[in-house]
Design a protein that fits this description.
TIM Barrel, about 300 residues, about 45% helix, 8 strands, 12 helices, 8-stranded parallel beta sheet, globular
Length: about 300
């Protein structure tokens, strides 16, 4: 993720959440259905697949992660498609804070970003001081992107100022690293809450808003993502500041990822159609994208393990 003047701005002030428009759930479902029915020609599909590949945050966030597993993931990121030259590499590798130094060493000499979850991921159940220490540790170890979780209990209790101030503090602790704010939309339960949480995070200074940790079901859905994209659109219209979007969790095949790209293009336009402003949080999506690219080139499917083991 490169530097951008828009991202240098701090929080734009606590929002008046009473003015956040209610979400038309029927309208959202109808729009999503239209995005899923788009017919895409072969040449456009190939370009879409390449675009998706460049937007992936290749992720391992398991309790059984080891330095060896992280090194293996980094090697996958570097050598993902050696047999298919000319394709873009993934945007980032995403790991726990204590694995950032391992990833930094393994990715040395590449321009693949290092993202790290922080703030007591995935629950967010810790003190602010520990969350800030978690964030600073990851940044000092070499993370250029931080994926934080909001305090959902506080948000659901209506303690919006607490959530806002926490995001502001974590943003400050990030220093030059970019901040992705995870809403954990599966726990927010309604699209109206997703919209309010999106507004809160962006006003607090989020560089990206992100759907999910991947640990709660449902994780990313097209409906939730559309509401968040619409919030980004309206925030840009009112402030002039671009904010990125990252759906994460459950997006494991290229066909679904293409639906997300169609929705992105038709909601926010071409300016957001880059890894600078849109990411997929995924572990197995990359292999399926490569399978589809091979099919488009040769007419023959390969096994996912032909490219790499996850």
């Amino acid at each position: 993720m490169g530097t951008n003047a828009n991202r240098a701005d701090a929080a734009v002030g606590f929002p008046d959440l009473s003015r956040v428009p209610p979400v038309d759930e029927v309208g959202v479902n109808e729009r999503v259905a239209r995005f899923q029915s788009r017919s895409i020609k072969k040449a456009s599909k190939v370009e879409a697949l390449k675009c998706i590949l460049s937007m992936i945050d290749l992720t391992t966030l398991e309790g059984q992660d080891t330095p060896g597993k992280v090194r293996q993931l980094c090697q996958k990121a570097i050598h993902l498609h050696d047999a298919m030259p000319g394709l873009p590499h993934v945007a980032a590798v995403c790991v726990y804070p204590n694995m950032v130094a391992v990833a930094k060493e393994a990715l040395r000499g590449t321009d693949i970003n290092i993202a790290s979850v922080a703030t007591a991921f995935p629950s967010g159940m810790s003190s602010l001081d520990l969350k800030l220490d978690d964030t600073r540790m990851a940044v000092e170890a070499g993370a250029s992107e931080i994926d934080m979780v909001i305090s959902r209990g506080a948000f659901l209790a209506g303690e919006y100022r607490y959530v806002f101030d926490e995001i502001v503090a974590v943003k400050e602790a990030c220093g030059d690293a970019h901040l992705k704010v995870i809403l954990e939309t599966g726990e927010l339960r309604t699209l109206d809450r997703v919209r309010r949480a999106s507004e809160l995070a962006m006003h607090a200074g989020a560089d990206f808003i992100k759907t999910s940790t991947g640990k709660i079901q449902p994780a990313a859905t097209m409906q939730v993502t559309l509401v968040m994209l619409q919030a980004i659109r309206d925030f840009f219209a009112s402030t002039g500041r671009m904010v990125g979007m990252k759906p994460a969790g459950g997006i494991s095949n290229a066909k679904l990822a293409i639906h997300y790209l169609v929705m992105l293009k038709e909601t926010l336009g071409n300016a957001w159609m880059t890894p600078e402003w849109f990411r997929f949080g995924a572990s197995s999506l990359a292999n399926d994208v490569l399978m589809q690219l091979e099919k488009q080139a040769t007419g023959v499917y390969q096994s996912a393990d032909y490219f790499s083991k996850d």
